[in-house]
Amino acid sequence: MNLSYFPFMIAMLKKEFFQYSAYKFMFMMGFYDLFILPCNAIIAGIQVIQGRHFCNNPKLYYWSGVISCGGFYGVTTLCVVLAFDRFLEMSFPRIAPYIFGGAKTYLWMCVPIIYQCYIGFQLPHIFNIKIYAMNQDPFHLIPGMENNPKFHFDSFKVFHTWNNGLLIFFLVFFYGGLIVVAKLKSKIYNKPKISKIQKQMTIQALCVCGEMFFAPLIHIFMNIVEFPIIIEIIAHFSWICLHGKYFA
């Protein structure tokens, strides 16, 4: 699965692309997916096939949860940074170089790494074979073991809901604002004021970040309402697809 990423990532390393901050961010997203997919898709899939519970290998399944959950927080934060970059470059092109130009791009790339390193260890998801999906409680739906205070706590649900809610808000705000500005410019100047490369990068960014809506949205509702297991499976599958964006 992950081998198919390399042609896309190698292509982005070409100077004609990598000189732009947007491609640096998308390249970094590819690295995230290379580490996350083996954990939340391959390891979890093998765990289901073999019927292995968290207790069979707690260290492996804990770390796969840390990488998956921390990576999710990191890549969603990076997606917001990418949306902010696209918004500034197309709406305020004179200001954008002062925010994302040169080495400042790499400083922005440190933000999701710091965020995920802290949150990933504090609030990890761990795969639960009872619901075939990641859950903050690996003993969920196991009589006598669920609601373990070491895993089950309300602060996770509150934080996860805020994280996903803010993600959706910022993506709608930045990309919605970008579309409005593009329309206004075309009306004022009676012709498109967006270069071909800017349009191409924005479409690619929209394709990459557009998949960030469904999975976070459904997980917000899952923190509020207890859904049937089939919905849990769909939610986990949408999480996998979120990190499989290079197949789109």
Describe this structure in words.
- With 248 residues, the chain is an all-alpha fold.
- It has one domain (2-247): Rhodopsin 7-helix transmembrane proteins (Rhopdopsin 7-helix transmembrane proteins).
- The chain contains ten helices and two strands.
- The chain has helices spanning 5-12, 15-18, 21-50, 58-91, 96-100, 104-122, 154-189, 196-210, 214-222, 229-242; strands at 126-128, 133-135.
- A two-stranded antiparallel ribbon has the order 1-2.
- The longest helix is centred in the last third of the chain and has 36 residues, at 154-189.
- The two termini are 13 Å apart.
- The mean pLDDT is 79.
The CATH superfamily bears the name Rhodopsin 7-helix transmembrane proteins
Radius of gyration based on Cα positions: 20 Å
Residues in helices, as a percent range: over 70%
| Largest sheet composition | 2 strands, antiparallel
